Amino acid sequence: MNQEKNSFLSSQVAASSSLAANVTSPIADLAEITTKIHDIADRDRADPVALLQLLRTLEQLHHEIQQGYFQSALPNTRQALYSLLRDIEENGGWPYIQRWKLQELFANLAATEKSEP
């Protein structure tokens, strides 16, 4: 099971290589982190409280990355957004983003374009 998940992660890492080129830390570290998380889940597979804590921790981490790093890194021009969306469509890997955040992004882009000469 871990091998299948690690294979999936490896394919996602390879598919997102164009985005990974802009990342300062090696994206290959994600495979190591994923393996560690799987090991923890496997170790605690009979302990629902421990698994719940793991899920809560992952959810909190997801929220922090989404609200902090990812949101501030989103493109602020139509061309850059198109490029990002095209890469996502071609390579997959769209992270969960709440619908209202996408609507806010599009509204900000529209406002930016109106203010550009």
DSSP helix count?
6
Structural class: mainly alpha
Unreliable spans are: 12-24
Name the shape in a single word: elongated
Distance between the termini: 55 Å
Number of strands: 0
Major beta-sheet overview = none
Describe this structure as you would to a colleague.
- This protein is mostly helical and 117 residues long.
- 77% of the residues lie in helices and 0% in strands.
- The protein contains six helices and no strands.
- Helix 1 runs antiparallel to helix 3 (29-43).
- The longest helix has 26 residues, at 48-73.
- The protein is elongated.
- 0% of the residues are buried.
Any key phrases for this structure?
single chain; 117 residues; 77% helix; 6 helices; mainly alpha
Summarize the structure.
By secondary structure, this protein is mainly α. It has helices spanning 2-15, 17-20, 29-43, 48-73, 78-91, 99-115. α1 (2-15) runs antiparallel to α3.
How would the blueprint of this fold be written?
Elements: H1 2-15, H2 17-20, H3 29-43, H4 48-73, H5 78-91, H6 99-115
Helix pairs in contact: 1-3
